[in-house]
Amino acid sequence: MSAKQILTLNSQSNNDLPYQAAYSETGQGPVVLFLHGFMGEGSCWRSLTQLLQPHYRCISLDMLGFGASSKPKIRYDIAKQVAFVRQFVETLNLGSVAIVGHSLGGWVASAYALDYENSVSALILAAPAGIRDDSFCGRYDALRPLLWQTPLVDGMLWLVKPFAGVVGQREGLERISWFRRELNAQPAARSFLVDRLRPEDAIDTVEKEIHRLRVPTLVITGDRDETIPLWHSQTYASEILGAEIVVIPGADHALPQGYASEMAELTLPFLSRVSTASPHQPSP
Questions:
Q1: Exposed (0-12), middle (13-18) or buried (19+): which is 35, by Cβ within 10 Å?
Q2: Three-state SS at 12
Q3: Please, what sign has the CA dihedral across residues 85, 87, 92, 94?
Q4: Which one of 36, 164, 179, 234 has the largest count of C-beta atoms within 10 Å of its C-beta?
Q5: How many other C-beta atoms can be found within 10 angstroms of the C-beta atom of residue 163?
Q6: CB atoms within 10 A of CB 168
Q7: pTM (predicted TM-score)
Q8: Beta-strand (E) ranges in the chain?
Q9: Mean pLDDT split into 10-residue runs, the chain, 284 residues
Q10: What is d(CA 4, CA 7) in angstroms, rounded to the nearest whole number?
């Protein structure tokens, strides 16, 4: 994959500075756009795009607030991510693209297809988020202190570090410390958590809308995914007309990083079938 390139996008309002979109691309042929997951960036797709590049022009985008793309101090939501992706597609004059989205990227991909269906030739959703699940809010409760913008939290983590080693919890504490550092460094990730701590905040999920999609869709998930429950992927597959679903045995949530070969074996024949079918007709 080539080094990241920076593309300047038009501001989304008169008060905004132009956004910078960081992306990498490799290969030639029909365009496949890759959208990463929560707290990720475009480089997570490197193993998969290397397998697809003989057949496709693979473009991996750092979404707004992630990686090397702009990190404005705004309230992040799916609509802003969709607008960012749309500006990116239009600025590069990509036309109709197939979109591969993982987790948060799958959520953004499906929301993008809902707004710009005629500009999406196919969807491949890998363990996609975006289905309302009020149990997620309970998971966030334990993260509340990590979201506080105060040195007190960092001081407490530093104080307990010596004791963590004594009681065999050093690895867990290091994960917590890393998570806090990443949240502080990634405004989009922090905003998504802060603004969704209550069930009633889940107002931009897509489960009520995806039945309208007529884009050929492949849903991929793992049977050991502890981040996105299987029924979320099944909801996408059942609601989108003609969608296919494949469960990879033994796979966890890290599909792009750990299961690139399995994803390629599913993605290549799917995209081949889509290319020979009529536009927006579900593949057989």
A1: buried
A2: coil
A3: positive
A4: 36
A5: 11
A6: 8
A7: 0.84
A8: 5-9, 19-26, 31-35, 57-61, 97-102, 120-126, 217-222, 244-248
A9: 85 69 97 95 97 98 94 91 96 97 97 98 97 70 55 46 44 55 72 68 87 98 95 98 97 97 98 80 46
A10: 10
- Surface-to-core class of residue 44, CB atoms within 10 Å of its CB (0-12 exposed, 13-18 middle, 19+ buried): buried
- Contacts of residue 16, Cβ cutoff 8 Å, sequence gap at least 6: 72
Which residue type occupies 127? Answer: A
Which amino acid, one-letter code, is at 83?
A: A
**Burial tier of 118 (Cβ tally within 10 Å: 0-12, 13-18, 19+):** exposed
Residue (of 87, 100, 24) closest to 59 by Cα position: 24
Residue 284 has which token pair? 């057989």
DSSP of 25-77? EE--SSEEEEE--TT--GGGGHHHHHHHTTTSEEEEE--TTSTTS---SS---
Task: List residues bridging with 216 in a β-sheet.
Answer: none
Q: What is the pLDDT of residue 164?
A: 40
Residue 146 identity = L
Q: How many helices (H) and strands (E) does the chain have?
A: 11, 8
Distance, in Å, from the CA atom of 71 to the CA atom of 213, rounded to the nearest integer, reads 31
Angle CA 226–183–78, to nearest 5: 70
Place of tokens 């905040």: 201
Total residues found in the chain within this entry? 284
Task: Please check whether residue 34 is in contact with residue 51, taking contact to mean a CB–CB distance below 8 angstroms.
Answer: no
Q: What is the pLDDT of residue 199?
A: 63
- pLDDT score of 165: 45
